[in-house]
Amino acid sequence: MSVDPGSQHRPSSPRDPNAGLPVVAMIGGGQLARMTHQAAIELGQCLRVLSGGADEPAAQVSANVVLGSHTDLAALRAVAVGSDALTFDHEHVPTEHLEVLVAEGVNVQPPPQALIFAQDKLAMRRRLSELGVPVPAFAEVTWAGDVERFGNEHDWQIVLKAVRGGYDGRGVWMPSDAEEAEEIVTAQLDMGVRLMVEQKVPMRRELSAMVARSPFGQGATWPVVETVQREGQCAVVIAPAPELPDELAAQAEQLALRISAELGAVGAMAVELFETTDGALVVNELAMRPHNSGHWTQDGARTSQFEQHLRAVLDYPLGDPAPIAPVTVMANVLGAATAPAMSMDERLHHLFARMPDVKVHMYGKGERKDRKIGHVNVVGGFGGSLDDPAYVAAVRERAERAAHWLSHGEWTDGWDNHGE
After folding, report:
1. Which of the residues in the chain have pLDDT under 70?
2. Which of 25, 206, 230, 325 meets the CB 3.0–4.6 Å disulfide criterion with 83?
3. Share of the chain above pLDDT 70, in %
4. How many CA atoms lie within 13 A of 210 on its CB side?
């Protein structure tokens, strides 16, 4: 992990030294905006949020909220007025609207010509291929025959994806034969969903390389992490990734920095990777914003991804991304199939009584099955080592135990809250 030492300074800002601190506008009122707001408070800044409703996570806590849709140009203009930078909680804003804002003088970061590669998976695959970045074999799908041909070429080890909008396992299908593929493709194309197909990568595990980049060109990287997926959704992040050779970790960090520079990204960016069974790296997805795989940085790194994102979009010198412990594990709090009878307040009470070192981050969301309603971070003790599997496993177990308790109101090890 590193901060580029050669890019620490930039030209002086023309800002009046007596003026207030910056206003950053963020499109989207979800948990990423909520946690960015918390970082803005520490920096003395104001985060103005465009939220779809007053009950969304960021709208609950920010004093500066514009209610409106991210697809409404008038709402985008309203939230941008007087802002020093406009950025994103999600990537779904129409780039044609962003181009209008840029033409009107709004400082949109990341700019629309970069954001498109986080919105459109096919455009991303094509651009990364042009840059020589390792990606799975892929093809555009215009009818079922495209998938049948691709499937036959790759022994039906394939993945169908919606070109736009899919995440957390949605918009992803794995047909096993031509008949199943035709059924999926016909249904999706009839609904106007653009599709692509790519080769299923034989992988050992999934990794994520989080970086940040400023308009001045300074870059910073956090350690590469391992992400554990369940039913297509991130459940656990282990930072740094255990048993990752130093050479491969450095390669992943440099690859992520190169991608952010080549695409002109600004702010925090996650490059989601496959570590293949033969020890190579293949790029899976890009996210040009704070990301679930970077939540561990709130408690496990000198500079969190949320503070770093604000620094980057405002073109401040970037913070030190170094980890503060041998390992930190993040576990998502995912809603149970049936919400426990015990209130969340009582669950928190018991968690804190039993595991006082666990850091809890709740999003202000209602509970429903598999919904991300929060996460926990457990920072490993300083006497441990990433090279000790038992140490890493113990930290991970504690994080997952805490997250499961908050989701289900039951301890995975059978602990009795009221026992002796």
Report:
1. 1-19, 166-169, 420
2. 25
3. 94
4. 30
Cβ of 408: how many Cβ atoms within 10 Å?
19
DSSP letter for each residue of 228-256: EEETTEEEEEEESPTT--HHHHHHHHHHH
In this prediction, residue 94 carries a pLDDT of: 96
Q: Which long-range contacts (CB under 8 A, 24 or more apart) does 42-47 make?
A: 42/307, 43/307, 43/310, 45/21, 45/310, 46/20, 46/21, 46/22, 47/23, 47/310
Token pair of 184 as six digits? 């999926």
- Name the phi and psi angles at 190, rounded to 5: -65, -25
Q: Report the C-alpha gap between 138 and 160 in whole angstroms.
A: 10
Handedness of CA 232, 236, 240, 244 (dihedral sign): negative
Which residue from 138, 91, 128 is spatially nearest to 262, judged by alpha carbons? 128
Q: Tokens 């950025």 identify what position?
A: 87
- Amino acid letter, residue 57: P
Tell me the C-alpha distance between 289 and 373, whole Å: 19
The angle formed by the CA atoms of residues 108, 109 and 112, to the nearest 5 degrees, is 70
pLDDT of residue 93: 96
> Comparing C-alpha atoms, which of 152, 154, 166 is closest to residue 198?
154
What is d(CA 314, CA 13) in angstroms, rounded to the nearest whole number? Answer: 11
